[in-house]
Design goal:
Elements (H helix, E strand, L loop, with lengths): L16 H5 L7 H16 L3 H12 L9 H4 L4 H9 L9 H11 L5 H18 L16 H11 L4 H10 L5
């Protein structure tokens, strides 16, 4: 049996992707919590790549700084690090490349926020799994820690830089 991620809430019931589709028009606190719960459910069902995608969806939910859920479950940088660091052969792909591509290719509404969140997740993955290679066919300038921190300060929620730094500090250097 899989061990539950300590940085994700326990699912209140069984979810499917349809339970996330309900929130197509109204995204925010409720969708955020549901994405985190669904990510936990997928993880416990031995679907780590899908769990990471559900957590990504939570990361990109538009949230107000005063959202109560963020007091219980801050933006999921620690969850991303925990999930990617667990021993499993079931991950498909490379989480470092996943976030590298997201950061470089994000467009549309709140693109700057999403870009810096993707770079922040990328930095967490790099620290927790330094063995994962970059995509050699994707020429992109990878930002330094201070640039990511400044991006989160400029575009993120007020507590976001601290949540990200806690995630980074909680990862032992390899």
């Amino acid at each position: 049996m899989a061990v539950a991620c300590p940085f994700l809430p326990k699912p209140q019931r069984h979810y499917s992707w349809r339970d996330l589709a309900e929130f197509r028009e109204q995204q925010g606190e409720e969708l955020y919590e549901r994405c985190l719960e669904y990510g936990q459910q997928l993880w416990l069902n031995h679907l780590p790549a899908r769990a990471l995608l559900a957590v990504d969806r939570a990361l990109y939910c538009p949230m107000l700084a005063e959202a109560k859920i963020l007091h219980l479950w801050p933006l999921p940088y620690r969850a991303i690090g925990w999930l990617v660091n667990q021993p499993t052969q079931q991950f498909t792909g490379n989480a470092r490349v996943h976030y590298q591509h997201l950061a470089d290719r994000v467009r549309g509404e709140q693109a700057d926020l999403k870009k810096w969140r993707a770079w922040a997740a990328w930095a967490v993955v790099r620290k927790v799994r330094p063995d994962l290679p970059a995509d050699p066919r994707h020429a992109v300038r990878e930002p330094q820690f201070e640039e990511i921190l400044q991006g989160l300060k400029s575009f993120g929620l007020p507590n976001e830089p601290a949540w990200w730094q806690q995630a980074m500090d909680g990862i032992r250097d390899a």
